[in-house]
Amino acid sequence: MISILAVEDDQDLNQTVCSVLKRHGYSVSGASSANEAFSLMFDNKFDLVISDIMMPKVDGFELAETIRQLDHNMPIMFMTARGDLESKQIGFRIGIDDYMVKPIDFDEILLRVGALLRRAKIEANKRLTIGKFVMDADEHVAYNGNESIAFTMREFELVFKLLSFPKKTFTRGQLMDDFWGIDTNTSTRTVDVYMTKIRDKLADVNDFEIVTVRGLGYKAVPNES
Fold first, then answer.
1. Is there a contact between 95 and 76 (Cβ–Cβ < 8 Å)?
2. Cis (ω within 30 of 0) for the bond into 222?
3. Of 123, 132, 162, 198, which is most buried by a Cβ count within 10 Å?
4. H helix and E strand count, the chain
């Protein structure tokens, strides 16, 4: 069973979040402080951490930074009243994976938790295979049959991201945030330039295609035949 740690000093909200997640099949432990969270993590293995930012003594930033130093792959989501851009920038620079602003919509938190866990599972695998096309994230190599494809690092990561979520549309803004940083001054047109280069390199690949979703962004669509 998937195990989640919820760190929130508001006892009522903590209990509600834990109850909602438990009703949907997750094993959940609640902590009211970062220090309590550290104790629970010492004795238990968790698959995801949901944390508030504003907590006494040790705040969520320090908690997330410590977790990230110990575990590069643990999904971390902030659930906080702080909706300002600076707090989001600090969180994402530390290495969190998602950010929700209170008041919390519990249907939305379930969707976000599911997405984070799916992504963590894919990243733990580090290898994608679609027909004859193979990507190995540990080696950063891609093959179409026996032929290697010379992607740059960023091209590789963009393709790996799209193929990790087949048929899911990613906006240009989302891709910019993921691969150029949320505070970048680079135009979203840069994504289009990269996609043109990627498509050229995938010209001989028949197992999927990178599709432009007009007015939004891009998605990878496997060929069914």
1. yes
2. no
3. 162
4. 8, 12
Query: What global pTM score does this model have?
Result: 0.59
**Bridge-based pairing state of the strands 170-171 and 217-222:** antiparallel
Q: What contacts 65, CB < 8 A, 6 or more positions away?
A: 94, 95
In DSSP terms, 211 is beta-bridged to: 219
pLDDT tens, per residue, the chain with 225 residues:
889 999 999 999 999 999 999 999 999 999 999 999 999 999 898 999 999 999 989 999 999 999 998 887 789 999 999 999 999 999 999 989 999 999 999 999 999 998 888 777 766 667 889 999 999 987 889 999 999 999 999 999 899 989 988 888 889 888 888 788 765 677 888 999 999 999 999 999 999 999 999 888 999 999 876
Residue 188 structure tokens? 């979203």
Domains in the chain (CATH in brackets) are 3-124 (3.40.50.2300), 127-222 (1.10.10.10)
Sign, Cα dihedral of 90, 92, 95, 99: positive
